[in-house]
Specification:
The protein has ten helices and 14 strands. With about 350 residues, it is of the alpha/beta class. The strands form four sheets. The chain has a six-stranded parallel sheet, sandwiched between helices. The protein has a four-stranded parallel sheet with strand order 7-6-8-9, sandwiched between helices. α1 runs parallel beside α2. The longest helix is centred in the first third of the chain and has 17 residues. The two termini are about 30 Å apart. The chain binds alpha-L-rhamnopyranose.
Length: about 350
């Protein structure tokens, strides 16, 4: 039986418990998930014995809780074992020890959201030398240091969507600021560079000025404090873009109880469960994201396909990703999940993650 294709345009409201139930039931032996069919040609592992390590930027972030649940669902279907490890703080140094451990354990695949494009590459090199396939998801390293990157959407698409939303919300003119994650995060920095570029070159945004970019380090309290400082330092600020689920939730909480509620717009990337109260009470009009569960699920199928030798990560390679259907590796070893999705008052009730 073939699974149906459900790209992120069709974000599905699946509860975590449902995801875990699915993982428990998934047999992975019906031919639907090509990734589960071991060829025996793989690197550090043979089929049926696949061990995976999932290393997010940090633990305690609901976004990564959802992506790990998706990875566990896929691992269940593939008959693989998967362990999540990770630091408290989203720093590259803190990730290195977990990469070293994965290499020492000889896991088949390491799935990592990188806190820095290059700082973790020496550790990754060692892991790859030891036979571990390394797949980045969510936040990439430089392409030469990993086997594949599973990207949530194109960086251009993510950047454009956030500008479209903030421009709509401030009536196309005025000062805006960015509240980002950590200063070295590959994903946020790529999106910010593209937003800066588009602000300069797209005539639709000629009357919008980006006056500041600050970093909350994907820590709730720091993001909250940075929001307060932004509003104090820029009395004419009309809007904030926060391309991080931690940042946007902290900024919304600050705005909700401040004189700026309803006056300063806030958008960016958030999870519906964290943002629901702020959308319902009018602090936030709309924001975007993809389904992090699907992202973890796809990254796990991609890793299994590499470990099992079905793909090498070169452009044009194709593999089956269970319920998500078939994916093709693009240039620079990148697999794209789909398009970003916009959440607002009318649809937020349909989602539970
Ligand atoms: C935070 C993290 C993650 C990013 C999302 C949007 O959870 O920074 O890397 O993709 O926000």
């Amino acid at each position: 039986m073939k699974f149906h294709t459900q790209r992120s345009a069709a974000l599905v409201a699946v509860t975590l418990s449902a995801a875990l139930t699915l993982a428990a039931c998934g047999g992975g032996d019906d031919g639907g998930g090509g990734g589960g069919e071991a060829t025996g040609a793989g690197g550090g592992q043979s089929g049926g014995d696949l061990t995976l390590t999932m290393l997010p930027k940090n633990l305690g972030n609901p976004y990564f809780d959802v992506s790990t649940a998706g990875a566990e669902e896929a691992a269940g279907e593939l008959g693989a074992s998967i362990e999540q490890v990770g630091p408290e703080q989203a720093s590259p140094d803190a990730q290195v020890q977990y990469i070293n451990t994965a290499a020492q354990q000889g896991v088949g695949g390491l799935i990592v959201s990188a806190n820095d494009p290059t700082a973790i590459c020496d550790a990754i090199d060692e892991a790859r030398d030891a036979g571990t396939k390394v797949v980045t998801f969510d936040s990439d390293t430089s392409p030469d240091c990993r086997d594949l990157f599973v990207n949530q959407a194109t960086a251009e698409g993510i950047a454009s969507k956030q500008l479209e939303l903030i421009s709509e919300q401030i009536g196309g003119e005025g000062e805006i600021a960015i509240l980002s994650a950590s200063a070295n995060a590959t994903n946020q920095n790529a999106w910010i560079a593209m937003m800066e570029d588009e602000l300069k070159n797209n005539p639709d945004y000629a009357n919008i000025q980006l006056v500041d970019t600050v970093y909350g380090d994907d820590e709730d309290q720091k993001s909250f404090d940075e929001t307060e400082a932004l509003l104090q330092n820029h009395p004419n600020l009309k809007g904030i873009v926060s391309p991080t689920t931690v940042g946007i939730a902290a900024a919304a909480r600050y705005l909700q109880n401040s004189q700026y509620k309803g006056k300063v717009a806030l958008t960016g990337l958030g999870t519906p469960n964290q943002m629901r109260p702020y959308v319902e009470d009018g602090t936030v009009t709309s924001f975007a994201l993809w389904n992090p569960g699907d992202l973890g699920y796809l990254a796990t199928y991609a890793t299994a396909a590499l470990v099992n030798g079905e793909i090498t990560g070169k452009e044009g390679d194709t593999f089956e990703a269970g319920k998500l259907g078939e994916y093709t590796v693009g240039p620079d070893g990148v697999v794209v999940l789909g398009d970003p999705f916009v959440f607002d008052k009318d649809n937020i009730g349909d989602f539970d993650f």
